C-alpha cells in the first residue's frame, strides 16, 4: 500500500453547499450591467403608459385608505404626531354643538323659503344663537384640549391644537378625515 494514497473503501463526502449564497465568484462589472440593463424607451408605449397609470392609481388608493385609517405614514404634516392623534381622539369622543352646525344651516335655508316673515326672522335668530353657542363650545373645547395636552405631554406642545380641535369638532363625524378611531364618550387617557 502506497504511503500517500487514499484507501479505496472510503467514500468521499461532498462538501455541503453554503446556503447564504457565498462561494461563487463575483460577477464581472460587464455581466452585472448586462443583467440590469433594460431599454430606456419601452417597446410598447401604450402598454407602458397604461401600466404606469395602474401603478399610480394603486399607490393613490393605498395612500387614501391609509389616510382614512389614520396610518401615520400617509398623514399630512398637519395631522402627524401623537399630540394630534390625542386631539383627534378627544374630539371624536366628545359630543360637540359645532358638529350640528351644517344640519342647522340646512334647516334654516329650508325655513327661509317660507313666505311668512316671522318664520324667517325666528330661523335667523335661532341660527345666530346656534352659532354663538357653537363658538362658545369651540372655545371651551380649545381650553380643555390645551389643558389636557399640557398635562399629558408637557408644556410647549399646544401650538395649533386649539384650531385643529375646533375645525375637527365643526365637522360631522362621518365627514372627518382621518376617520374617527374611538367611540363616542370613550375619551383617551
UniProtKB/TrEMBL annotation:
The record's InterPro entries line, in alphabetical order, gives: DUF3043 (IPR021403)
Q: Which residue ranges have biased composition labelled Basic and acidic residues? A: 43-54
Q: Which residues cross the membrane?
A: 95-114, 126-145
Entry protein name: DUF3043 domain-containing protein
Query: What are the entry keywords?
Result: Membrane, Transmembrane, Transmembrane helix
Highest taxon of source = Bacteria
For whether the record's keyword set contains Lipid metabolism, the answer is: no
**Known Pfam families for this protein?**
DUF3043
Renumbered to this chain, region (Disordered) spans 1-54
